[in-house]
Amino acid sequence: MLTLGIDPGLARIGYGVVSSDGDTVALLDYGCLETHPGTPYPDRLKYIYDSVRRLVRRYKPDAVALESLFFFRNARTVMKVSEARGVIVLAIGTCHVPAFEYTPQQVKQAVSSYGMESKKNVEIAVRQIFGVEEHISPDDTADAIAIALCHTFTGAYREVVLAEETDDCTD
């Protein structure tokens, strides 16, 4: 199974691509998409949409795993991040790939056995699982890899957010 993990955001969108054959997991790629605050807002959303579609077309994942939004103190921030997340879900949906959603606590529990783990310790756990020596930065990238791992470890038990079969993303 090939899973694309995405840590949604507006300024930074982390991604990680994880494969599993049932016995072993492998980290195939990871990175961070970034939008500049000075760029017009619609252009930032378009960049996110196009970039996520490119990732889906490139890797042809069996599933995409997303982190669900959690509490934000600033209502304006939560609105912008929600809108960016909506664009990400739309991009995935237009490629007909099933999407799954996990809370931050579920992700932390899956990779470190403790649902309240710090971001630093999640990154360390991800590095240990895959034998990566260098620091994975920014946090959004390590989080995205952890989200993909969470789905790999627990995905059979999750509810599908988008219920289409994987298909090529041609339009």
Describe it for me?
- This protein has a single domain (2-157), classed as Nucleotidyltransferase, domain 5, CATH 3.30.420.10.
- α2 (75-94) links the parallel β4 (63-67) and β5 (99-102).
- The longest helix is centred in the middle third of the chain and has 20 residues, at 75-94.
- The chain is an alpha/beta fold and 171 residues long.
- The chain has a five-stranded mixed sheet with strand order 3-2-1-4-5.
- Helix content is 44%, strand content 20%.
- It contains five helices and five strands.
Task: Summarize the main sheet.
Answer: 5 strands, mixed
**Lateral strand order in the biggest sheet:** 3-2-1-4-5
Q: What is the domain total for the residues? A: 1
The CATH superfamily title: Ribonuclease H-like superfamily/Ribonuclease H
User: Could you tell me the radius of gyration in angstroms?
Assistant: 15 Å
SSE topology string: EEEHEHEHHH
Class per helix and strand makeup? alpha/beta
- Record field, number of beta strands: 5
**Overall mean confidence score, pLDDT:** 88
Binned, the helix content reads 40-55%
CATH class: Alpha Beta
Strand content: 15-25%
Q: Assign the CATH topology.
A: Nucleotidyltransferase, domain 5
Specify the number of helices: 5
Short description:
By secondary structure, the protein is α/β, with parallel strands linked by helices. Helix content is 44%, strand content 20%.
What is the topology?
Elements: E1 2-7, E2 12-20, E3 25-34, H1 41-59, E4 63-67, H2 75-94, E5 99-102, H3 104-112, H4 119-130, H5 139-154
Parallel strand pairs: 1-4, 4-5
Antiparallel strand pairs: 1-2, 2-3
Helix pairs in contact: 1-2, 3-5, 4-5
